[in-house]
Amino acid sequence: MEKPRAVLFDAYGTLFDVYSVGLLAQQLFPGQGARLATVWRDKQIEYTRLVTTSDQGAPHQPHYRPFWELTQAALTYAIKLIEPAARSDWAAYEAKATQLMNQYRHLSAFPENREVLQALKSRGIVTGILSNGEPQMLGIAVRSAGLEGLLDHVISVDGVRKYKTHPDAYAQGEKVTGLTRQQIVFVSSNAWDALGATWFGYRTLWVNRQNQPFEELGTPPTRTATNLREVLAFFD
Fold this sequence. Notes:
Layout: E1 6-9, H1 22-28, H2 33-54, H3 67-82, H4 94-105, H5 113-122, E2 126-131, H6 135-144, E3 153-156, H7 167-177, E4 184-188, H8 191-200, E5 203-207, E6 223-225
Helix pairs in contact: 1-2, 2-3
Protein name: (S)-2-haloacid dehalogenase
InterPro entries: 2-HAD, HAD-like_sf, HAD-SF_hydro_IA, HAD_sf, PGP-like_dom2, S-2-haloacid_dehalogenase
Function: Catalyzes the hydrolytic dehalogenation of small (S)-2-haloalkanoic acids to yield the corresponding (R)-2-hydroxyalkanoic acids.
């Protein structure tokens, strides 16, 4: 097989640490910060699947909502789950929710991001993000992490109004780069995302930061690693 010509990264969980909100969550909800962050993330992804599946075949995709709105809805759910009082008195918790949403705009970036992106650029490899996030949301995250100039493309599924793992979402990578799926490496720390991209036809790197088993559906990723640096092995 020819060497790939581009690398597309998932954003949330892969370049940006979605659990870095846990410290603020712990300050706002003592003893429950980690649980809140986990429920928030799980519900966020559940909502993306719910709206995309429910819109299947619908001409105007009536259930689609931008990722920021789903993230906010997921946070509201998480707070109401861990703090039952919020269900009847949301106004008392709204300020805390706003703080957490503002923190989500500026998630911590993983430390090897810049090094890996610079190495790819030095080899002439096209780089980009392919994310569920909407364009404005991604733009803020990229600028906050200081990654401007290291990414050729910041691709949002918002253009097709379908979330990963829908094939149309992954196809945005081909459309924007002008390359075929066989010429693209897709990198994600989310096992379900790495699997969906593998099924789509991308070469894949699963960044298993949490030492978890891969999905038990019979299709492994092309490579597995514990950080982003392993993506360079595709070009050695």
